[in-house]
Amino acid sequence: MVVLIAFAILVGIYFLIAVLPAKAYGELLFTTHQDDGLYFLFAPHPRNGHVLDEKKVFLLDRQAKIYHEWNLPRITFSVALDAQENLWALHFASNPTTEIRGELDELAEYSWDNRPLRSLKGFTFSHDFEVIDENSIAAITLEKIDEKLRQRLKLNTNSKGFAYSDRLIILDGNGNVSWSWRLTDHLDELNFKPGSVDDFELSHSNSIRYLKENPITSTPAFLLSIRNMSRVILIEIETKKVIWASPEGLVKYQHDASLLKNGNILVFDNGFRGDEVLSRVIEIDIRTNSLSWSYNGGGNWRFMVPVMGSAQRLDNGNTLITTGSLGQIFEVAPDQKIAWNYLLPIKSESKLIQTENFWQGHAIYRARAYNLGIH
User: Helix and strand tally (H, E) in the chain?
Assistant: First the structure.
């Protein structure tokens, strides 16, 4: 009898662990998929700029069930998985000084089981990074602009009298800089017009991608999205030259530029022009600087995303889109039809949000789809 009872308990435990479905996080609004092996990584954070208390990072399956989660020691802005499926996270600055939304002070690596593996500090990081390999990590950093240069560029200042620009760096595994590139050294290549940026931040670059072979010279390069200048550019790593730049007026306050297999560039174009917001995801043919594909929600007023946002071309040919502050991730087929649609939960664990701005819920800086092979 004792053996039978013990066996029944073991079966019950197995049923609870292996059979019952995983906990849902948010709401799956629509799907044409069942299980194609994709999992979706993102770090939700409150839309309130002054409420930063969410520390979890999630991997969801196609049914919006939690496949895996990390409970990190610090609040996280952007995340990515490396080739070993370790998590890399950019953490919000504990004591921000620049007044720039997206100021970060630590790039950290965590194991699948949440153990801290590496911490890169000593820089004012901004928005995004790229793990090239285990000993090469590219990142966007912020630097103060010399006062004489600031006046020449006709930039504003923050409350402390400073202006900022970007410096791209490559860090080795120990956090030492092995390569760097300053935007202010290449403004002539972009035909920058003083006074054209009405901000105390010249660039506000928000995405960086490493290209082993760029489509212009077939050499290693970085693809950079410079939000405040409304430009996407290719930087050849060896020469540090700007070898391609999106034509003026094509994008406005864009995010998340990436290179596609066909040599085109995919961009989330926020389209924030004054009081008008007409967002879209576009595919740029850099040989002609024309659009080969675009999605704007079919003119639907709900696809208006003034800040944040991301786009990723999936292997099935569809495009995964994140609406940033709206907390929505959806997948669009080439014919503009929605194939998958997910919405973050509105309710926040933050007491301040619940009492002050309950409706605001969470935002997602960027979501990424992964085919997981190890776990």
Answer: 3, 29
